[in-house]
């Protein structure tokens, strides 16, 4: 069965996303969708997006305003699709369902997986996840960790953070997590705890769980409920494949560049990163020697953005 190349648009206006309802009689009919459609022969994906958005919604989108979000290959059994997902916040005009379809502007947290075709779950994850995922760095004690954490919190720049402290004993980590959760909660930042599945169950209120590879490799299924974030640290394509198989929402992949912590290890570079991202059906963060200045390169390589320590953590 040939694969259908589908251009999919995440159109953002004032923090809301434009969605439409698919007519009952078409493939995946009755479900919600992001505007889009097949890329016609001879068209680039950007040209297809501009055309489909105009045809379906009346909005005009400058091609230069389009940035890649994620690419997803999915086999529905009766149809194989490659969803080539792009985002724009530069659409002009008033949106209306020009093909008679109901449309609406929804907040990212109101996009429910079950209302969309199955292939859309990673798109919704990619929309909700930030471009920059900060990870906590060195701390010698719980109290030092909490004071560094409180000083580094910045809800606007970093709405979601990974609380990593592999050198603290388990009971100290619990204290750290409970203090960090209350500091972060009061300014609206989500905390993804790090370690093993019991760390998540022992930390009520955590936004999710991030596992080092040595923990993830022992799992055969997703260890947290679907509302919680589940991330895995990966270093090559087979690790990413396993993370996908156990239901990860996102992975970090690296090192991309040489890092201060591992100066002897050469990074994989954006080229190898992008080869892996090309087939990974979930958001992938570049990790290792990267900061916010590298987000554009990560997106260009097909990634979600970057994750790391040194750009935000005061002690390294
Ligand atoms: N537009 C769009 N298509 C999606 C989404 N998710 C998803 O799985 N698809 C699938 O991608 C394919 C897009 O086909 P389409 O029907 O919108 O495209 P089209 O208008 O060019 O083609 P048509 O001639 O078959 O109607 C369908 O199989 C659809 O189920 C989504 O969010 N938006």
From TrEMBL:
<dbReference type="GO" id="GO:0008413">
    <property type="term" value="F:8-oxo-7,8-dihydroguanosine triphosphate pyrophosphatase activity"/>
</dbReference>
<dbReference type="Pfam" id="PF14815">
    <property type="entry name" value="NUDIX_4"/>
</dbReference>
<dbReference type="Pfam" id="PF02581">
    <property type="entry name" value="TMP-TENI"/>
</dbReference>
<dbReference type="InterPro" id="IPR000086">
    <property type="entry name" value="NUDIX_hydrolase_dom"/>
</dbReference>
<keyword id="KW-0479">Metal-binding</keyword>
<dbReference type="InterPro" id="IPR036206">
    <property type="entry name" value="ThiamineP_synth_sf"/>
</dbReference>
<protein>
    <recommendedName>
        <fullName>8-oxo-dGTP diphosphatase</fullName>
        <ecNumber>3.6.1.55</ecNumber>
    </recommendedName>
</protein>
<keyword id="KW-0378">Hydrolase</keyword>
<dbReference type="GO" id="GO:0006281">
    <property type="term" value="P:DNA repair"/>
</dbReference>
<dbReference type="GO" id="GO:0044715">
    <property type="term" value="F:8-oxo-dGDP phosphatase activity"/>
</dbReference>
<dbReference type="InterPro" id="IPR013785">
    <property type="entry name" value="Aldolase_TIM"/>
</dbReference>
<dbReference type="GO" id="GO:0009228">
    <property type="term" value="P:thiamine biosynthetic process"/>
</dbReference>
<dbReference type="InterPro" id="IPR020084">
    <property type="entry name" value="NUDIX_hydrolase_CS"/>
</dbReference>
<keyword id="KW-0227">DNA damage</keyword>
<keyword id="KW-0234">DNA repair</keyword>
<keyword id="KW-0515">Mutator protein</keyword>
<dbReference type="InterPro" id="IPR029119">
    <property type="entry name" value="MutY_C"/>
</dbReference>
<dbReference type="InterPro" id="IPR020476">
    <property type="entry name" value="Nudix_hydrolase"/>
</dbReference>
<dbReference type="InterPro" id="IPR022998">
    <property type="entry name" value="ThiamineP_synth_TenI"/>
</dbReference>
<dbReference type="GO" id="GO:0046872">
    <property type="term" value="F:metal ion binding"/>
</dbReference>
<comment type="similarity">
    <text>Belongs to the Nudix hydrolase family.</text>
</comment>
<keyword id="KW-0235">DNA replication</keyword>
<dbReference type="GO" id="GO:0035539">
    <property type="term" value="F:8-oxo-7,8-dihydrodeoxyguanosine triphosphate pyrophosphatase activity"/>
</dbReference>
<dbReference type="InterPro" id="IPR015797">
    <property type="entry name" value="NUDIX_hydrolase-like_dom_sf"/>
</dbReference>
<dbReference type="GO" id="GO:0044716">
    <property type="term" value="F:8-oxo-GDP phosphatase activity"/>
</dbReference>
<feature type="domain" description="Nudix hydrolase">
    <location>
        <begin position="1"/>
        <end position="131"/>
    </location>
</feature>
<dbReference type="GO" id="GO:0006260">
    <property type="term" value="P:DNA replication"/>
</dbReference>
<dbReference type="InterPro" id="IPR047127">
    <property type="entry name" value="MutT-like"/>
</dbReference>
<keyword id="KW-0460">Magnesium</keyword>
